[in-house]
Amino acid sequence: MKTKILEIRDSGTFIPVVATDMNPDSDEQRFYLRRSGFPCDGSPNIAIAHIRASGDPFWNDPYGWPSRTYQVAHDYIITNWATLKDGDVIDVEFILGITAAPKVSERLTAA
Question: What's the structural domain count of the chain?
């Protein structure tokens, strides 16, 4: 499995997430993932969780989220998984064409 830490942004929103491609790297991972219902067919199957220790959901379905922010960002992450890297900003307003330029990471702008 491959994991990346990304920054989801929307209007007034900063959401650090951990995104994991739920395709196995070993026979052990394949066994447990298949037993849990993951297809393990090589196509991106990205599960996302908010980075905080509060028991937030860990979803692999972009439309299982209760908000537009997560749904749009999750779908974008699945579609662009191969080109994303740790620290990339997933700007929902930019993806939807609401803003002309993507937001810059708070990691780079925080005082």
Answer: 1
Q: CB-based contacts of 1: which residues, under 8 Å, 6+ apart?
A: 20, 21, 22, 23, 24, 25, 29
Q: What is the reported pLDDT for 55?
A: 66
* C-alpha closest to that of 85 among 61, 105, 56: 105
pLDDT at 76: 97
Confidence at residue 42, expressed as pLDDT on a 0 to 100 scale: 86
* Residues paired with 7 in a beta bridge: 16, 89
Q: Are 5 and 87 in contact, with CB atoms under 8 Å apart?
A: yes
Range of the domain at 80: 2-109
pLDDT, averaged in runs of 10, over the chain (111 residues): 96 93 94 91 89 77 88 96 97 97 89 61
Give CA angle at 47 (45, 52), nearest 5°.
Answer: 165
Residue recorded with tokens 């990691």:
107
Cα separation of 88 and 7, whole Å? 6
Amino acid at 5: I
